[in-house]
Amino acid sequence: MKKLFALLLLVGGSVSLSFAKPLPADTLPVRGFCIAAPRAEGLVSFLKFIDTELAPRHINTLVLRVDFNYQFKSHPELRDAGALTEQQVKQLVQTCRKHNIRLIPQINLLGHQSWAGTIGNLLKIYPDFDETPWVKLPANYVWPNADGLYCKSYCPLHPGVHKIVFELVDEICDVFESTAFHAGMDEVFYIGEDKCPRCGGRDKAELFAGEVWAIRNHLAEKGRELWMWGDRLLDGKLTGLGAWEASMNNTHRAVDLVPKDVIICDWHYERPDKTPVYLAMKGLAVITCPWRMPANAKQQLKDMYDYRASATKEMKPRFRGMMQTVWTDAAGFLNEFYGTGKPQKDTVNTSANCFRAIFTR
Question: What is the pTM assigned to this prediction?
């Protein structure tokens, strides 16, 4: 997902914030951790990490990016090789329940249907869903490129896409016994393309909001909540946030069109921008999401406390808390966290250090 940022070597400013003792579990409504679901061979180590690191830090929400790392029964053709079994997922469910951790699965919807030169399982098996079938994945991916290719999207108006997607969503939510689902929906560069026979000429903000509504309404039928990343709801040009942390293709106007009960995960990695205030003032509940810069994350945490302390009674519930994001696989993060992997060039700005900085043990 945000792997492109791993190529950047920007260093943030210094902000000090420390706590004399671990924070009470109810200090923030959401104290979250987001990471790729472990592979089957790494499950035992990850379960131990939940027991020994997440629980003592009062983490109460775990978002696992599953995508196709599950042995789907509804669509076995979409499974990754060596994907998690139902029994293995139940081990995750039981461990999280033991610690009162809310477990939320994620499948990337709309965008992120490819990465660099690799097509994702959905478009590989169902190529008709591709929003831009004329854009071919290169053997050697570079950015920028003539096609504006970052990641592929599925066409939100394709008549067959939601049947497949919603069957996956229902199955993964059922097996994870979850009351919420994270749909991703970040960094959507391809939407409403002129050459698409269904989307061409349509308003990109309305298309994006329509897909949010479709997913939200489907989840609501079973009492489930929709979580998503917030970058497409921010104006990249007006704010100077650019094309990744915000939108440069006019989806930002969807902020006034999406349902107000969607939970927005607002990620900013290179600067502690104060966009939660904007999103909250639009009526949306917001969770701030850092990645690898401890100094920035501490400022973001301080800001979240300040927002909640100074907000009106109407606004305060919209400032939900913090969620650490990790953009390596689970095994890679555990190697980083425990110092068992390859030495890193930057020993300060790491996701493990960021996690430790905001969630004390």
Answer: 0.93
